[in-house]
């Protein structure tokens, strides 16, 4: 589990692509290089397992499925990548609950300067739009953002100066692809409303604030 609060901007130093998978190496600061093999790191919002640590370099194996479902296949040597360690049990949830399981890949349609930072208009796969609401949460390249506006097929988000400095969103422009993860609880709510086999109970939904206390089905 992650929060969408980026801890480090790593630099891609090597990306070896095989016929069905890849091996990614990212350079990090000494403060981030205390990872151990087997730990999880969100790279541009995609949960990857650390396979090796070599001084200030972290290595990951990337499966064919991850390459297909995310923008990690677009990474180039020298490019910056958003990094976040897995949330510890006693950690602070500063953004929103992010699983690191990318739901799809969107594309930046427009970038405009705003009074504070800039705005991105991002097209997202149509099947994901039903999980999005104005002022709700979305993760773009692993960054927890608030949806400022929804238009037909487009999500508008504001990127404040701190987020721009701390993430690779500062370099995102029209045409760039970004990883999209919707709020996982919205998926559970959809299953609940549809009456499908439930992966979450009404009691759980009440505890996390997605249903009012005392809720009962009609």
Describe the protein's architecture and organization.
The protein has 218 residues and is mainly beta. It folds into two domains: 8-85, Beta Barrel (Elongation Factor Tu (Ef-tu), domain 3), CATH 2.40.30.20; 104-184, Elongation Factor Tu (Ef-tu), domain 3 (Beta Barrel), CATH 2.40.30.20. Helices cover 13% and strands 38% of the residues. It has four helices and twelve strands. The protein has helices spanning 64-69, 161-166, 184-194, 202-207; strands spanning 8-17, 22-27, 40-43, 46-54, 57-62, 80-85, 104-113, 118-123, 137-140, 143-151, 154-159, 177-182. The strands form two sheets. A six-stranded antiparallel beta barrel has the order 1-2-5-4-3-6. A hairpin with a 4-residue loop joins β7 (104-113) and β8 (118-123). The chain is globular, with a radius of gyration of 18 Å. The model has no long low-confidence stretch (mean pLDDT 89).
